[in-house]
Amino acid sequence: MYSDPRVLVVALTDGRIEALCRGLDSLGWRTMTARSGGAAIAALSDFKLEAAIIDADHPEAAALPEALRLAAGARRLPVVSIGSATAEDGVDLAMAEPPHPTQLGLRLEQLVRAAITEEEFRLRRQTLALHGAALDAGEPDPRPLRILIAGAPDHRFIGLSNTLTQAGAEIVAAPTPYTAFDYLHESAFDAAVLWGAPDHAPALSIASGMKRNTRLYHIPLALYLRSEGEINLGELYNRGFSEVAAASTPEPDIAARVLALAHTHRRHLAIRRALEGARGSGVMDPTTGLFTPTLFASHLGRVADAATARRRPLSICVLKVSETEPLTHARKGGWLDRAMPQIGAMVSRLVRVEDTAARLAPEVFALALPATPGPAARLAAERIAAVIGCTAFDAGAERSPFVVEFRVGIAELKPGESAAAVLERASADLHAARAA
């Protein structure tokens, strides 16, 4: 049984994009192809498409980005151009040659999540404004981009560094993985470029270390191959690289791709900081920094309306502290109350930036997960409960530390359903799970 298409491809012929589409299909990014602008616009009306890919040789290529965005309506549609090294107006990502499917699948995931985050950012500003709180505009830091270049000196690597510097970026060079990590831990970077040794071991070591660090995890990584040879691109992209450039790639091309990654990363950081800044707005729960019941109800109505207008799924999760004997003793001594600020902070860190976390009652939390179907929301909520359940909280000098377990309830918004109704169903699911 085929799933609904997720990616709209606009191409006059299959020559450039056929292999790429097959690869995306195999990765779960099912594609559908339109030969004309009119057919593409009709497809956006008929299907819940998440992104668009345009063959730069299409005769309507210049006008298509704007036309597709208008056809998508309230839903922000990321647009990728294949066959052009320069991102024109309305294009989120331009690639001169068809990329490896795994690479584009990862970039599509990033672009779609970024689009959802921007949608949520606008909604949250509206909600907070209604409650007398202002949210920062989310403007990126205007200072020059900072890019780390790690690897032994080489004329091509030095050429790339010079090209990035000429483009206005601030470059920091690290000759070894050790110095690279020193720099990464000392200051912030917008992207990192790793110079591949013959066996790629130093670059893979840096990439692996960064992906195990929550602060460094989201910094985009590019690998510049030292020589032509047999490499497993799928493995490299799954290791966390956002970009892999062949040894024959000219320095200006790889520089443009790295700068695009860095600009996108800085924009995402600005939105994340703005959203997180709402915690100090004075309208949040004072103990946990999460949404209050009143604020959550107000925002959930707006999020539900937006999900319907954008034809995106929306799921609600309710997490309630379970009744256990250790928790009964922790409540009596006030130790559970003392743990609540840490638990709230953990909930806040464990959700995505576009998710809304609230404290509905002293021991009840709720999550609104945009663009997330029910099964995926349950996995997310159970993961959050499992992580918190691995943390030991102080129960006083004469008792062993206690752990906090949660019961989880989930509901996905149905067509025509109100925000209050879906929240009620999630609560009912919580009690059904207890009965089971």
From TrEMBL:
Record EC number: 2.7.7.65
Classification via InterPro entries: CheY-like_superfamily, GGDEF_dom, Nucleotide_cyclase, Rev_trsase/Diguanyl_cyclase
Domain GGDEF: 312-436
Enzyme class: transferase
UniProt KW keywords: Nucleotidyltransferase, Transferase
Gene Ontology molecular function, alphabetical: diguanylate cyclase activity
Protein name, entry field: Diguanylate cyclase
Organism in which the protein naturally occurs: Brevundimonas aurifodinae
